[in-house]
Design brief:
The protein is mainly α. The chain is built from four helices and no strands.
Length: about 70
Amino acid sequence: MNSVTFTKDLIRVQDELLLFAYKLTSNQEEANDLLQETSLKALDNEDKYMPDTNFKGWIYTIMRNIFINNY
């Protein structure tokens, strides 16, 4: 997967990720922070993503793990 496709996939799931972040945090500001942190971590670890795997599952797992570790 090239960087452009990865970035487009990441942008495409932002709204769903924000809803998931809000469900986890129950706070709009914290949900926005969690979304931002998740997006940055995904971009930093783009090289670890395997193209044939479920992108949405991969990114949701990142968000859930960040939430568990930080909150």
